[in-house]
Amino acid sequence: MTLTIRGDYITYLRETPWDKRNFGVNTYEVTDIGKEALEETDAYEGHFTIKVDPLENPEPLLRHGFYYVDTLIEPVCQRDNLQVFEDNHVRITKDYNPSAILAIAEEAFTLGRFHRDFHIPDALADKRYKNWVDDLQQSGKLFALTYDSDTVGFYGFSDNKVLLLGVRKDYRGQGFAKRFTSLSCREHFKAGYEELQTSVSAVNAPSLNLFYTLGFRLRGAVDVYHKLNGAFA
After folding, report:
1. Which ranges does the record mark as transmembrane (predicted)?
2. What distance in Å separates the CA atoms of residue 29 and residue 50, rounded to the nearest whole number?
3. Spans of the chain below 50 pLDDT
4. What is the rounded distance in angstroms from the CA atom of residue 69 to the CA atom of residue 222?
5. β-pairing, 142-147 with 9-11?
6. Domain parsing of the chain, residue ranges
7. How many CA within 13 A on the CB side of residue 196?
8. Distance separating alpha carbons of residues 163 and 199, to the nearest angstrom
9. What is the pLDDT of residues 190-209, one digit of tens each?
10. Is the pTM of the predicted complex or chain greater than 0.90?
């Protein structure tokens, strides 16, 4: 159970301002699945996210207006297990043109939970991921992927977590992703981590296969439910 004391009352809602700026409504992460937490979501307008064990009984969630959107698989990789695929044409760099990265981000994410949420227009889901990529650029937590001198993708991270991968459309389906990602992971490990973690939608078979090829193994999973009180502008 996670709760916060805000002023003179207890709340189970954690505000997510990075999503509010994209969707134009109040957005929250629900930090507990208990009765009081679910009842609190009934008292406010906005968009809510809750992550639960897949074995959890969903009936209370459904009764309070939540709906299933995704299952996130959680692969992890130990430093010694990483499989690296060398390619003399591929380079990982932090010296890149930000606009080239944002252009890739505009069309790289179609299998995420925000695109699967039938309440969220695709344009807003696209905006959400593009702004996330921009945030990672601004904080220095993104590698650009180049093939010769061509910017073809990106790898976003925070601490030991692999957050976002994007490869330009004309480079997909040709085996480049495992080269780009393995070299990025090797660079990521240089920060001193013994383990990298990531989170992949269960419907994103290409990404799951990619990480398995690189030496990641599945540790767990969570089901994600959303709820919308009100409407998007």
Report:
1. none
2. 6
3. 3, 7
4. 11
5. unpaired
6. 4-69+223-229, 76-221
7. 28
8. 7
9. 999 999 999 999 998 989 99
10. no
